[in-house]
Specification:
By secondary structure, this protein is α/β, with parallel strands linked by helices. The chain has two domains: 264 residues, TIM Barrel (Alpha-Beta Barrel), CATH 3.20.20.70; 68 residues, Antifreeze-like/N-acetylneuraminic acid synthase C-terminal domain (Type Iii Antifreeze Protein Isoform Hplc 12). Helices cover 33% and strands 17% of the residues. The chain has twelve helices and 13 strands. The strands form three sheets. An eight-stranded parallel beta sheet has the order 5-4-3-10-9-8-7-6. It has a three-stranded antiparallel beta sheet with strand order 12-11-13, with no helix packed on it. Strands 1-2 form a two-stranded antiparallel sheet. Helix 1 runs parallel beside helix 4 and helix 1 runs parallel beside helix 10.
Length: 353
């Protein structure tokens, strides 16, 4: 079902791929409200919580927004400002982003950002970010994606606001640039918060099967369940918005995790990773101590020369050591004659036949 994926993507000092630790992105987005002091605090929180990366957004409002553009539905509750002015207010200077980049280095957490326009893309390239996260709003923007692909850096591509046909067309562009081995395709639903009924995690194995690329999940729900399910279905990257306080102003605060929730989310992911184990079914070291629970073949009292029938044997728990009542063993035993007398119920052994 999952297809065969052998490549991995390297972002900073982290390798992302099948069998590798899940790459966890704490999405700061614009939740620091363009205040450096708050952004620094968010970096501290993400690093302490154990995230692999923290992600911001890089844009120039004039490059991405018409001045009479309409707010998306989830932002309509923000009154007394039009959409352009709201976005403009959250626009962070390149100088401040350099400071954030350097602070992330100091805190040993990977700095990522979503470029929304060519100018921002060039800036992040010069900053030498290790990868580009591309917003769902640009998944069908091939004008911009061509420029992103030309940079030859790993790409985390969200697929909210798209149909399967849209994704297929974008993957053709990725393949044209021979960049699929540097791609992580993220299942996403662009609603904030996303209702569980709209998460659609079954897209993840379908992406893996059809596109034979690494797949992740951009989680906009208000709990941890979807992220854990995504990882169990093959996601090797997960990201989730967080904030210092949900009561802060801003479009994404209410649908974000607070610091303790972020820490708990990451903790649950790491526990799930251990639970996944590997694909080989084995008797674990812990189970070996409990093998006495497993039933073995026993034989009832009978005289030498008796033909063994099903009624003469049964399966019971003993010391865990013996012949398993598997069909292949039964076929070798039933119909054979006893070589000696059995005086009491006992464990069946091969030297009886």
């Amino acid at each position: 079902m999952m297809g065969r994926i052998t490549n991995y993507v390297e972002i900073g000092n982290k390798k992302i791929g099948v069998g590798k630790p899940v790459f966890i992105i704490a999405e700061a987005g614009v939740n620091y409200n363009n205040k450096l002091s708050l952004a620094y605090k968010m970096i501290d929180v993400a690093a302490k919580a154990g995230a692999d990366a923290i992600k911001f957004q890089t844009f120039k409002a004039k490059n991405i927004q018409l001045k009479n553009s309409i707010k998306p539905n989830y932002q309509k509750s923000i009154k007394n400002t039009n959409y352009y002015n709201l976005i403009k207010k959250l626009e962070t200077s390149f100088d401040d982003q350099i400071k954030l980049f350097n602070y992330c280095k100091k805190k040993n957490i990977i700095f990522l950002s979503t470029p929304y326009d060519e100018e921002s893309l060039d800036f992040l390239t010069q900053l030498n970010v290790p990868a580009f996260k591309i917003s769902s709003s640009d998944t069908t923007n091939h004008l911009f994606l061509e420029s992103v692909l030309e940079k030859r850096k790993p790409i985390l591509l969200s697929t909210g606001l798209t149909s399967r046909k849209d994704v297929d067309l974008t993957l053709k562009l990725v393949e044209k640039f021979k960049m699929k081995k540097k791609l992580v395709l993220l299942q996403a639903t662009s609603d904030y918060p996303t209702k569980s009924v709209d998460v659609n995690l079954r897209v993840i194995p379908e992406y893996i099967k059809k596109h034979k690329c690494l797949v992740g999940f951009s989680d906009h729900t208000q709990d941890f369940i979807a992220s854990l399910g995504a990882i169990a279905m093959g996601a090797c990257v997960v990201e989730k918005h967080f904030t210092i306080n949900k009561k802060l102003s801003g479009p994404d605060q209410k649908s974000s995790l607070e610091p303790l929730e972020l820490k708990e989310w990451i903790k649950k992911i790491r526990i799930l990773e251990k639970s996944l184990g590997d694909k080989n079914k084995i008797i674990t070291n812990s189970e070996i101590k409990n093998l006495t629970m497993r039933k073995i073949l026993v034989i009832n009292p009978a005289k030498q020369g008796t033909t063994i029938t099903r009624n003469l044997i049964s399966a019971k728990r003993g010391d865990g050591k013996g012949i398993l009542p598997l069909q292949k063993n039964l076929n070798k035993i039933i119909g054979k004659r006893l070589l000696r007398n059995v005086y009491r119920e006992r464990k069946f052994t091969w030297d009886l036949i």
